[in-house]
Structures are given as C-alpha cells and as structure tokens.
Amino acid sequence: MSEPARTQRNPGTLPTPPRRSLGTPLILLALAALVVASFATLQLELGAFFAPEAVTTTLEFLAGFAPPETATPFLLKTLNAAIETLSMSALGTLLAVVAGLVLALPAAGRWGAAPRAAVRLVLNVLRSIPELVWAALLLVAAGLGPFAGTLALAAHTSGVLGRLFADALENAEPLPEASLRTNGAPALAAFFYATLPQTLPQMLSYTLYRWENNIRAAAVLGVVGAGGLGQMLKYHLSLFQMQSAATVVIAMLLLVALVDAISFALRRALTR
C-alpha cells in the first residue's frame, strides 16, 4: 500500500515530535551557576545594609536635602546649566549621527571585506571606552567645560550608532537597489533612493534612543569637569550644600523626563 493511501486511512495520526535539544537547559544552568557564583564572591553584607544604624544614618543624610534651594538667582543658574547639558547631549548625538553614517557604509561591507573588518574594529574601540574615560582624555586636550563633554559623547555614541546603522544596512532588502543599478542608476543614487529609505526609520529610532542615554551621560560627565548640571552637582556636594544639590538633582530628573517625553512622541510620529 502506498504512503499517501496509508495517510488517508489514518488521518488522526500525529507527526513524530522533534527531539529536544539539551542546549537551552545547559545554558540556563550555566547562567544560574554564574549568578550563584557572583553572590558567593562579592561578599555582600546585606545585614549591615539594613541595620538600624545604617537606616538612621541614611534618613539623616536625606533629610539634609530638604527643602531644596529655591532662590531665584540659583534657579536661573540651574536653568542655564540644564540648557548646557541639553545642548551637550544634542550636539554630541548629532556629531555621532554624522560619524556613524560615514563609518556605517564600510562597516556594512559595501566597500569589501577588509574595510568592513577594519572599520568594525574602530567602532568596537569607540564604544568600548566609556564616556567618562573619553571625557577624562579629552579634558587634557580641550580643557574644562562642555566642549570636552560634547566630544566625549560624540566619540562613544559614534561607535554605538555606527554599529547599529551598519547592521541596519546589512539587513536591508538588496533587491530594490539592485534593480535600480540594473536599470543604469548610479551607485550613490541607488543607495539613497532604495536602501536608505528602508533603514531610515530604524536609524531615527536608534538616534532618539541614544539621545535619551546621552542626556543622562551628559549630566554625569560634569563630575569630571565637563560642565552642565553634573559639574554643579559635584561642586555643591563637595561643599556639603545639600539643599542646593537637591535642586540640581530635581533639575536632572525633570530634564530626563522632558527628553524622554519628546523622544517618545517623535518615535510615535515615525511609526504612524
């Protein structure tokens, strides 16, 4: 009897279930062992953290931040620092977008395998160095102030966005660009009219997300002298002016919330 006839006579026969792989359970066990080993090697003193003396000291420290400083001259000074922080993040992100696009083309393999490997190595170096380290290095060349912080944000974010943009270009559908090239369109025109429109919404989403991160990073970079709210926070904390520091912290929270709301609205507009 043929196989199709046997299948027709036994319509309720279930197919043989696939054999389960042991890879996933082994990975989960390895992760669980890593977590256990981390707790064992860090020597966390949770009892001392929740001790009555520690709780009392923490509450007394936090009480020193109240009430925040609300004098008009200080509020204007904080507003100027917040604008400086916002400008650092926006300009640093903009420079990173330009550099990321330039580096993404060879990193996506459009110029060959050797340039792809070399540029991806450069991108790995740029993003593996934290913003604080970049700022510490650039402060020597650019001096104290927001210029060094802006360059630090641009350097680190260029590595991140360059890698993300390159992956987006590699994952784009190649047929539209190939069709334009076949019909005689130049390579640059085919890229701008076929490949870039496919990846542009994804690139804009990556850019907005990194701008959100750069707001937080710009606030921290001031700790090493890169200007903005971070520099104000370090100054007042070093002098134990807790009420003034509380105002700066509130300004940081409001600035981050504002940028998050703007970024969310822009992403919603792009996806409609």
TrEMBL record:
Domain of life: Bacteria
Pfam families: BPD_transp_1
Localisation: Cell membrane
Keywords, ordered alphabetically: Cell membrane, Membrane, Transmembrane, Transmembrane helix, Transport
Membrane-traversing stretches: 21-42, 86-111, 132-158, 245-266
Domain ABC transmembrane type-1 stretches: 82-263
Keyword Amino-acid biosynthesis appears in the UniProt entry: no
Membrane topology: Multi-pass membrane protein
NCBIfam families xrefs: PhnE (TIGR01097)
Family that this chain belongs to: Belongs to the binding-protein-dependent transport system permease family.
UniProt-recorded name of the protein: Phosphonate ABC transporter, permease protein PhnE
Organism listed in the record: Massilia haematophila
